[in-house]
Amino acid sequence: MPDVRLLPFxxxxxxxxxxxxxxxxxxxxxxxxxxxxxxQINGQPGNGMTDQVVKYLIARWPEATHRYLYANPNRVWSxxxxxxxxxxxxxLRTPEREKVAYFRNAYLLPPPQLVYRPETxxxxxxNRKGEAELPAVLRNASLRGLVVxxxxxxxxxxxxxADPANSAHLKRLAPGNYxxxxxxxxxxxxxxxxxxxxxxxxxARAQDATLTHLKTAPLAGGAGLMVGGIACPxxxxxxxxxxxxxxxxxxxxxxxMLSQAQMRWISKETTQRYGAAMKDFFRQLAxxxxxxxxx
Length: 295
Fold this sequence. Notes:
Elements: H1 7-18, E1 26-31, E2 40-41, E3 44-45, H2 49-59, E4 65-70, H3 73-81, E5 86-92, H4 95-98, E6 101-109, E7 113-116, H5 121-124, H6 134-138, E8 145-148, H7 155-162, E9 170-173, H8 182-187, E10 193-196, H9 198-207, E11 215-218, E12 226-233, H10 236-249, H11 252-263, H12 268-284
Parallel strand pairs: 1-4, 1-5, 8-9
Antiparallel strand pairs: 2-3, 5-12, 6-12, 7-10, 7-11
Helix pairs in contact: 2-11, 11-12
């Protein structure tokens, strides 16, 4: 006669055997095809800054199923706001974005600069420090500005761009390719100025000699270095993913990878100016960033 004490365990085993196996976690990585931030090669991450970060995470996360979706800023932030099971690998942090996403810091970026055609030098009117006064540039009726819709340039600049008083002579480009064509449009005299990152300009000039004549100037009153990272939706699923991403990155090896992924694209001048702050930032990333998912 079977031991009745074992029957509950036998029933539980039979029940668990009849249940379907739990599906593997599926994560959609929202990617940007915007060198050197991200570079798409045959639908896969290439050699860009965020590509290296995603490859590092995936190599250490075999239990999940990973897929890539190359999307423009509108789609990225719509998906995150809707709580979809997706994470964005190259998210600039802003207060508005923190309302819809959890973040894990990964990048410390130099502030954007003004890029302009040399023929507009007199209209730009740099100050004594060689800086451009962005409000004055935006309101100058003789200048044609061009920026990317929905893309963040940092909280302070975003606020200026959102002010209707500054937008009369500003054109916003659809965000299909993160504005990869804007610099070419400047070179072709289809616009007079835009706002862009130092390392994006360095990469673009190396790829296209026609862009070397474009001039750049720091923006007066700039907010300084900007923090970027990986963003997942602000819900239970996203919180779990950010926690796991933090566990995978929080080590000297992970911090060194993050530093190398970014610093190889940063110009010598920018490194001289911000190198110490960047080194300290990446040193801190070797430790768990638990404050990100405990709030």
